[in-house]
Amino acid sequence: MLVFLEILLRATNLQPKFAVDWVYHPLLGHSGPRSETIFMGQAKNLYSDLGFRNGWLKTPSPDPKTFSLVILGDSMTESSYMNRETTYAGFLEKILTTKNPRIHTLASADFGTLDETLALHLYKEKLQPNLVVLQFLGLNDFINNTLAFASSNKSESDFSRPYAIPQNKRDSFSPAFHLGKLPITYQSRIRSWLLEHSRIFLILYGYHISRIWDYASVHGYPEPDCPEELELFLENPSEGWQEGIEVTGAILAQLREEASPAPVMGIYFPSNIELDDDMWNRGIVPKLQHCYPGKSFARFNGERLFLELSKKAGIQGFSLKEALWAGAPRDKINEKIFVPGGHFSELGHQTVANEIAKYLKRSMLDWNAKQK
Predict the structure, then answer these.
(1) What element of type H or E holds 147?
(2) Cis omega (within 30 of 0) on the bond before 237?
(3) Burial zone of 257 (CB within 10 Å; 0-12 exposed, 13-18 middle, 19+ buried)
(4) pLDDT: is 263 or 211 the higher one?
(5) Virtual CA dihedral for 52, 201, 115, 234, nearest 10 degrees?
(6) d(CA 69, CA 10)
(7) What is the pairing mode between strands 36-40 and 43-47?
(8) How far apart are CA 161 and CA 158, in angstroms?
C-alpha cells in the first residue's frame, strides 16, 4: 500500500511546501517555489524556474553583451515582505538602468553562506556572472554555517540545511559530498536521505514542520536568557563559535573558487542592534555583561571578522555601516532604516543600493573596457 502511494505521489509531481515560499531542495535544504507568483500581504513575489525571487518566472538566457550580476543572500536580500522594486536589488536596476545590467538574486530566508555558495555552484553556468555579490549578516551566517548550533538557535531550516564539516570534526562526521575540497554533511544524514527519496516522508515531515512554525508565529519562539547570537560580539567566543568562524573562512575561499573567473564582492550588512546606539547600549551591553561576566566584547566584532576572512579568501570586502549611519539620524536608525523584525525598510534598501552602486559602477566600467 505504501509503495503504491509513493508511486502515485511521484506521478503527480506534487511539491509540498514547508511554508508558502519554502519548498524542499535536496542540496540546499530549501528554496522558493519554482515559476510561481506568491503574495506576501500586499507584496508580489515572482519566483523563477530556479526557485528564487527575481523579476521573472523564467530565467533569461545569458547574453554576452549584458553585464550579469549575481547577488547571494538571505532574507535581507530576498525581502519577500515588500515589492521587488523597493528592495535594494530593484533599486539597483533603476540606478544602473543606463548600463542595463541583468541582476539575478540567489537568496532565501535563513540561508547561510554555504547555502549561497552551493546555489552559485548549481546555477553559475546558467547565469554566467560577471560579478558575484555576497550579502553577509554576522548574526545569521556564522551560526548557520556551523553544526555546533544546529537546532539550538532560532534558525528554521537546520533540519535540512547543508553544513561544512570543521577541521576538528572530520573524524566524527562522514561527508555526504564534497564541494571542491570542502566536506559537506547534514544534521541527520538519514533524515536528509528520506526527504530526498521518499515523497511520503517529505509530505509528512513538511506538515510537521509547518505546524511547528504556525504555532511559533502565534506564540513566538522561547527566548533563551543568553542566545548564541550574542557571541558574535565576544573577542574570545566558545568553541562552537570558533568552529563557525573557521568554516565560514573555508566557505568564503570555496566561494571565490566557485565564482571564478568572476570576482566576488563581499558586503557586511550590520544588524539593527549593531547600528542603533540605544539598542546596543541599553539592550545588548547589559545582556553581554550578564551572560559573559568579565569577558571582553566589541560592538563591530562581526564586521572585523568578516572583512579579515574575506581578505584572506581573496574577496573584496566592505561594510555598509557608515552608509547606513549616514542614511538617517543616529537616534532614529532603527525606526527609519529597519522595520520590526530587523529587516530593511524602503529607506534602508535605497541606502544600501546607493552604496553598492558606487562599487558596481567601477566593476562595470572595467568590464565594458574589456569588451571593447
Answers:
(1) none
(2) no
(3) middle
(4) 263
(5) 130
(6) 36
(7) antiparallel
(8) 5
Q: Is the pLDDT of residue 168 over 90?
A: no
* Res. 67 pLDDT band, cuts 50 70 90: very high
User: CA dihedral defined by 84, 89, 92, 96, rounded to 10 degrees?
Assistant: -100
Report the candidate in 11, 2, 68, 13 with the shortest Cα–Cα distance to residue 35.
13
Instruction: Give, to the nearest 10 degrees, the angle between helix 199-219 and helix 2-12.
Output: 70
- Residue 139 · residue 269 · CB < 8 Å: no
Question: What's the angle, vertex CA 23, arms to CA 21 and CA 25, rounded to 5?
Answer: 135
Enter the pTM of the model.
0.94
* H or E stretch at 24: strand 22-25
**10-63 pLDDT tens trace:** 777 777 788 888 999 999 999 999 999 999 999 999 999 999 999 999 999 998
Tell how far CA 13 is from the center of its chain.
28
Q: How many CB atoms lie within 10 A of CB 180?
A: 13
Contact residues for 266 (Cβ-Cβ < 8 A; gap 6+): 134, 136, 252, 306, 310, 315, 316, 317, 318
Q: What is the tens place of the pLDDT at every residue in 310-361?
A: 999 999 999 999 999 999 999 999 999 999 999 999 999 999 999 999 988 8
Helix/strand number for the chain, H first, E second = 15, 14
Pairing status of strand 22-25 against strand 17-19: antiparallel
Peptide bond into 101 cis (omega under 30): no
For the chain, what is the mean pLDDT?
91
Instruction: Look up residue 60 and give its three cell numbers.
Output: 533569461
Q: DSSP 3-state assignment of 260? A: coil
